Amino acid sequence: MNPLVRKLLFGVEGLVYGPAYAGLQHLIRSPEPIDPQAAWDLIVGDKPAVYEFVCGHWPLRPLRWPLLHAKMRQDHVLGIAAHYDVSNEFFELFLDKKYMFYTCADFPTGTETLDEAQQIKADFILNLIDPQPGQKILELGCGWGPMLKRIYEHTGEKENLYGLTLSKEQVAYNEQHNGFNVKFDDFISHEYDPESYDTIYSIGAWEHVRPNEIRPLAKKLYAAIKPGGKLVKHFFCRVPDHLFATAICSQIFFPGSMGSPYRSQVKAFEDAGFRITHRSIHDYRPTLRAWFDNLVANRREALELVDVQTYNRYLTFFPVSWRYFNDGLGMLVRWVMEKPA
Ligand SMILES: C[S@@+](CC[C@H](N)C(=O)[O-])C[C@H]1O[C@@H](n2cnc3c(N)ncnc32)[C@H](O)[C@@H]1O
Questions:
Q1: Is residue 25 one of the residues assigned to a domain?
Q2: In the chain, at which end, N or C, are there fewer CB atoms within 10 A of the end residue's CB?
Q3: 201 within domain boundaries
Q4: Which residues sit with their C-beta closer than 6 Å to ligand 1?
Q5: Which parts of the chain sit beneath pLDDT 50?
């Protein structure tokens, strides 16, 4: 990009979207791969109070909803493709080798490798799902199929395992490597047969569901689960009710997605009829740091697969997310929700 255009965009975006959004975009549009340590320190480091105040109050009130409204009307497939259909080989460079989870792992002692931590998380979630022989199980937003793989390792049954994703690259990966019943479809608008699944679960996909979609989807999923069945949900949510600056900045990485506050999610699922029988909170930060370190270590290979701006976008995404959790703005939660028999 022409350096003058880059500077001009910085000014315009600063006024419209605010300094945090403009600063991140400016960094990402750098013509060179950004320096990892400098980027990490810049993003997670303490800032002057006045800067934080301005960031927290931007975009200006009359612009807030109009700016988000346009994004919240776009088809989900556009946002998902923008983030996930980059290159499967690119994701392989920084995710764990065995499963390819693109979600928070568990590091109980802090000394685990990423692969060990993803195994611990997979076992934890397997325990929550507790799959029994012959049960029909569906994953909403199944990614590259890591949890379907873990369930298959446990049950040895493939034909009862289903997955939905809006990433064409992930569907192709599944056909090539896994052979589960994975379909390209939007789990929000998907027509579910009534009482057809023993368990539905989602790991890190609920973050893409917009606030106005949560209540109708909770009701649909309740209807799709057999009496006595369950919904297992691993997701992160906002702690404060309103966070416009964060919602705007997240459009850089997940265009068209917007997280919801914790308490509105509890209400939506309980109102749909579910009983929440397990709640645990997990720390996303070590996983984000591990992905960041892996991407940096594989910089040369990454730049053979994607352009500099895409590399810069992911390198920026990990510290931005790390800071979100470190500042207590977001919380990673696992729930089991039961439908009475
Ligand atoms: C962060 S990835 C998590 C993937 C996987 N569950 C894992 O643990 O690695 C989010 C996944 O949700 C999917 N997804 C998001 N919104 C979706 C929607 N509305 N319909 C179908 N899939 C969706 C994406 O395609 C992607 O596969």
A1: no
A2: C
A3: yes
A4: 76, 80, 84, 101-103, 141-143, 146-147, 164-167, 170, 186-188, 203-205, 208
A5: none
The enclosing domain of 216 has a CATH number of 3.40.50.150
Q: How far apart (Å, rounded) are the C-alpha atoms in residues 182 and 274?
A: 26
What's the CA-to-centroid distance between 304 and ligand 1, angstroms?
Answer: 25
| CA 305 remoteness from chain centre | 22
**Residues forming beta bridges with residue 233, ordered by sequence position:** 202, 335
Q: Is residue 42 part of a domain?
A: no
Question: What is the whole-number distance in angstroms between the Cα of residue 52 and the centre of ligand 1?
Answer: 32
User: What is the value of pTM for the model shown?
Assistant: 0.96
Helix, strand or coil, per DSSP, at residue 298:
coil
Token look-up 């049954």 returns: 157
Q: Would you state the pLDDT for residue 322?
A: 98
C-alpha separations of 75 from 81, 83, 147, 183, 208 in Å: 11, 14, 26, 17, 12
For residue 50, being part of any structural domain is answered with no
Distance CA 309, CA 193 (A): 42
Residue 23's alpha-carbon distances to 51, 67, 81, 153, 287, in angstroms, are 12, 18, 24, 45, 24
> Ligand 1 pocket check: which of 99, 162, 166, 174 to mutate, most ligand atoms within 8 Å of Cβ?
166
Provide the domain count of the chain.
1
- For residue 175, the one-letter residue type is E
Q: Could you tell which of 83, 88, 99, 102 is best to mutate to test the pocket of ligand 1, judged by most ligand atoms within 8 Å of the CB?
A: 102
